[in-house]
Amino acid sequence: MSTFAIVFYTLMIAASCLAAYYHRREAFMVLFSLTLISFLMGLLGGEVWLRYIAVAIGLLYACGGLAYSFREFLVQTLPRDIAKVMRNAPLTASFGLFVIVVYIVAAIFAPVIAPFGEAEVVGSSYAPPDDTMILGGDQLGRDMFSRIIYGARNTVGIALLTTALAFLVGSLVGLMAATLGGWVDQVCGRVVDTLMAIPSLVFALLLLTIVGTNVVNLILVIALLYSPVVFRLARAVAGNIVVMDYIEAARLRGEKTWYLIISEILPNATAPLVAEFGLRFCFVFLAISALSFLGLGIQPPTADWGSMVRENATLISFGEITPLIPAAAIALLTVAVNFVVDWMLHLSSGLKE
Amino acid sequence: MGVLQLVAKRLGLGAVTLLVVSIIIFGAVELLPGDLAQQILGQAATPETVKAMREELGLDRPAPVRYVEWLGGALQGDFGTSLANKRSVAEQLGPRFTNTLFLAALAAAFSVPISIVLGVLAALYRESVFDRIANVATLTSISSPEFFLGYILILFLSVQNPIFPSISSVSADMPFDERVYVTLLPAITLTLVVIAHMMRMTRAAIIALLASPYIEMARLKGEPRWKVIAVHALPNALAPIINVVALNLAYLITGVVLVEIVFVYPGVGQLLVDSVTKRDFPVVQACCLVFAATYILLNLTADVGAILSNPRLRHPK
Predict the structure, then answer these.
(1) What is the value of pTM for the model shown?
(2) B133, B166, B276: residue with CB nearest A209
């Protein structure tokens, strides 16, 4: 047994004992099950796996600490009534907020942060990381780090635009269907049912074959495929609103349908739609990344995380983590948004009870 | 209305959906600017060659006639010939479809039992540390793109520690155990994605049940915890769980495309993506039809399962 393994097990057992001594039941359960798992992994896979576990624990610890400090920072700096809500936010939510802020900064200040341009060839292809290119080079010798930074702008920007479009179409048609009722409602409902009966990635592939792959088509196709879900939600929410007395009153006043939708229904349907926006953004973002990964989405030389994974995928068989970095960038943002949305849903359901 | 009528109605609706979807898949290609012949030959083609191509593809006849022929052929397993290599589409699709089904079945065999057990556990011990860790872990796994999970598995389990092959090349004459071994890595990737969904949905279904009065009654009369779950909650949770399983198997169908590309697995998903790149319309149509039909069938199973497992519908008053 090497020194590393001995130190690792000693620390794990000591931490478990400490947790037990101070009656931290939950912490003890987590620590001790981790110890048991590492015994198992150590026996089966050898010391390498212990190192993986140690790195994973370290990473989790770093994320937790970061989230904790960021939450404190927000509590200290924000105005009092928001700070009150933040104080009780789970660590996952503050971690998510932190990641989102970092991505926004990266997207806005991309040209300032990135040392090189997104299509600029700097070194040799697949260059290993060094002082000029801190994450190494890609298949054409472009700086990986700069492309990741620019990717925040391109990939996230396009996903946001697509989600916004899907929302505009979906919620407008949904509100319209709910307000008008009758055959408009029926027709919209059936069209949406049919659209949702086909798996969206497969449908996207079919449509992209026909219209051809470029960014505009990609945005339109994905927005079309993801608007039915928004339609359903908007329709359901508005369905509860149109039966209210104030809508009846507005109708009797002789208001136009358009006025009803914009001034009477929309303000009351905003809250659930906003929460849905976060969730939908994740799905749209993943769909666009998936298509780009398949080579059918955002086209080169635009720096985009999905296509960067595909272009550098061969490196994985040499044990390089280069293709994992853009993939991790995608995963991190979706995880972060999901954490924040999860917290918001919890918050809104908690207030209702 | 009796349960048989309900099921028959749902099946009829499914058949209509399938028909409409087939019309969309066929009609989408008709929407091409110009037509198929012009698309294949490009701008530089002379009118004569376009006309000859049109006749070869049968495009000179009206679209409804061609649709009926196409659908009739598809029902008998004939999807026409590929534009790229002039081979029969069915011949390329057949073995790949078996491969894809094998991969999906393997993933389902892992994920269904694990996720239901974990979901019930998370619902039982909700708000505990286990539930919170499970919540974070499943959110993370849902949010990660399939290719991220796939490449992580390749990096750790086949490059740094050569346990599994990173490329799953399967062939028809492989013995079963070797086939499972080769397919294991993509199956684990799919499992990770689907488990998260299924577990969260199972947890939500059980929690909704645990709040109902008869569970409280069972608890108040002093039943042990496992009995409350096994005897009172689970039989009533069957409908939502069947629903969850079928919906997620349908989700597998979409996930399979990306995973097949990552692991170079010879399935329908890979054929579809290749054909989209080559703009090989007959193959794309056939693949889409196969995927859509499987998807609709699984959703149909979910609904029929929900109807059948509802005692109120099975024994009408």
Answers:
(1) 0.87
(2) B276
